[in-house]
Amino acid sequence: MKIATFNINNINRRLPNLLAWMRAAKPDVVALQELKASDGEFPAAAIEKAGYGAVWRGQKTWNGVAILARNAEPVLTRDQLPGDRDDHEARYIEAAVAGIIITSLYLPNGNPQPGPKFDYKLDWFARLKRHAKAFLKQDLPVVLAGDYNVAPTAIDIYPTRSWDKDALIQPKSRAAFASIVAQGWCDAIRELHPEERIYTFWDYQRNRWLRDAGLRLDHLLLSPQLAPRLVKAGVDRNIRGEDGASDHAPAWVVLK
């Protein structure tokens, strides 16, 4: 079973790229982030024609998350991260596919920091940590997939000082991510590639793609029940170099 996460950065603008990648890669499940489309603007017909069922939560202009399943209909289990009834941003959705709970999460960027946007990021992390702990208590097979907007360690960002003040690599951001992993989750890509510089995001500015000046922001965390089934993990980085590409590339795992 191949499960991928992909920050598509505007699903309607990148729809040809998305469909071409799905035809080639044949993922069984795709967690999408940053749809930048309202519920009614989601391209459901094109997704269905490609052979995928879908659940989604859109938001006009920004945010938006979805889960696609090949030759199947995802069973929606939640479309909002619990813990804050006043948070109406479309950043979280989860669904059951083939007996596995899959999330698509889009953590707040947190910039500028310090400030209210960074506080919101840390609060969102705390809420995710509580929800993740509940999954573990129930001993469920879960993949926490999505754009976490954090490069967890120094090896997850190209050698530079230009991002030192960015929320993506702040000690508190990294500690929040590490505290979730420490609950017992398996960071799939790092599990199989412990020392390799692997990136999932290359900013459009400053020629960063051609310089391979990337960051690993997109992660798939596996619950203890799923971790022993991990056989492959990687990033389809060439997708980032195509015309009209998102600034992210799909990250994926294969479970036996």
TrEMBL record:
<dbReference type="InterPro" id="IPR037493">
    <property type="entry name" value="ExoIII-like"/>
</dbReference>
<feature type="binding site">
    <location>
        <position position="149"/>
    </location>
    <ligand>
        <name>Mg(2+)</name>
    </ligand>
</feature>
<feature type="binding site">
    <location>
        <position position="7"/>
    </location>
    <ligand>
        <name>Mg(2+)</name>
    </ligand>
</feature>
<dbReference type="InterPro" id="IPR036691">
    <property type="entry name" value="Endo/exonu/phosph_ase_sf"/>
</dbReference>
<dbReference type="GO" id="GO:0003677">
    <property type="term" value="F:DNA binding"/>
</dbReference>
<feature type="site" description="Important for catalytic activity">
    <location>
        <position position="218"/>
    </location>
</feature>
<feature type="binding site">
    <location>
        <position position="147"/>
    </location>
    <ligand>
        <name>Mg(2+)</name>
    </ligand>
</feature>
<feature type="binding site">
    <location>
        <position position="247"/>
    </location>
    <ligand>
        <name>Mg(2+)</name>
    </ligand>
</feature>
<dbReference type="InterPro" id="IPR004808">
    <property type="entry name" value="AP_endonuc_1"/>
</dbReference>
<dbReference type="InterPro" id="IPR020847">
    <property type="entry name" value="AP_endonuclease_F1_BS"/>
</dbReference>
<feature type="site" description="Transition state stabilizer">
    <location>
        <position position="149"/>
    </location>
</feature>
<dbReference type="GO" id="GO:0008311">
    <property type="term" value="F:double-stranded DNA 3'-5' DNA exonuclease activity"/>
</dbReference>
<feature type="binding site">
    <location>
        <position position="34"/>
    </location>
    <ligand>
        <name>Mg(2+)</name>
    </ligand>
</feature>
<feature type="site" description="Interaction with DNA substrate">
    <location>
        <position position="248"/>
    </location>
</feature>
<feature type="active site">
    <location>
        <position position="106"/>
    </location>
</feature>
<dbReference type="GO" id="GO:0004519">
    <property type="term" value="F:endonuclease activity"/>
</dbReference>
<dbReference type="InterPro" id="IPR005135">
    <property type="entry name" value="Endo/exonuclease/phosphatase"/>
</dbReference>
<feature type="binding site">
    <location>
        <position position="248"/>
    </location>
    <ligand>
        <name>Mg(2+)</name>
    </ligand>
</feature>
<keyword id="KW-0479">Metal-binding</keyword>
<protein>
    <submittedName>
        <fullName>Exodeoxyribonuclease III</fullName>
    </submittedName>
</protein>
<keyword id="KW-0460">Magnesium</keyword>
<dbReference type="GO" id="GO:0046872">
    <property type="term" value="F:metal ion binding"/>
</dbReference>
<dbReference type="GO" id="GO:0006281">
    <property type="term" value="P:DNA repair"/>
</dbReference>
<feature type="domain" description="Endonuclease/exonuclease/phosphatase">
    <location>
        <begin position="4"/>
        <end position="248"/>
    </location>
</feature>
<keyword id="KW-0464">Manganese</keyword>
<feature type="active site" description="Proton donor/acceptor">
    <location>
        <position position="147"/>
    </location>
</feature>
<keyword id="KW-0378">Hydrolase</keyword>
<feature type="active site" description="Proton acceptor">
    <location>
        <position position="248"/>
    </location>
</feature>
<dbReference type="Pfam" id="PF03372">
    <property type="entry name" value="Exo_endo_phos"/>
</dbReference>
<comment type="similarity">
    <text>Belongs to the DNA repair enzymes AP/ExoA family.</text>
</comment>
